[in-house]
Amino acid sequence: MTPAEEGSAAEALAAPEAASNPLASERRFAKALVFTPHPDDAELSGGATMAKWASEGTEVILCVVTNGAMGSNDPSVGREELIATRQAEQRAAAGMLGVSEVVFLGYEDGYVEDSHELRRDMIREIRRHRPDVVVGPDPSMFYFGQQYMNHPDHRRVGEAFLAAVNPGATTVPLYRAELYDKGFEPHQVKAVLLSLTTNGDFTVDAEGFMDRKLAALRAHDSQLGAWEGLEGFVIGMAEMIATSSGTGLRQAESFKAFFFD
What is the CA radius of gyration of the chain? Predict the structure, then answer.
């Protein structure tokens, strides 16, 4: 994304439609698995949340679906060079947030479909890591106001993510030869959080973790290095989410939540 596109996406995140539950952010998780369409998406929508969870002892694992190969309009930048750059940036950003592991699925940036291959791979990661909470993009977010049309990769990853959670992660016959028969046993998560959403009802207090979020975003220099107003915009977004949530918080991130425990 260009800085302008990132800004429009962030504005959409700052306008939740529903008031959040002020007690929701008090939930603790032992392990979190965060699925993100592209390098930098997870930090923009939930960087402070990942940093906060890690600081509380949650093991946070990040799974990046695409290779980020479409992240430059400069024809002089080679494809393999850009992929390597974006992976290095993502690892650096994850380290700043306390993420313990980064998994790259390697799907082609800009061409993601809600395919059986992607569902299978996401199910595999859920069963491999066996998290309490999984995070992925909201597939229902097509556009926001007159300013932003959501990236199709975000929506397609969100569709595959929901299918991977239900029925995928708990159903033995699905992709049995590739998963269950290879030792990936079913797993029921306790919570699902949808990021990149305008339907937030789960608010996380981001105050005290915005510096880490900003540092992680700056690590994505190939994407955000030219955005001079990054800090002001990200802080403003967190303050808008907090105000909209009705929780009394000063800075926040918001998700659509589902609980199964």
Answer: 17
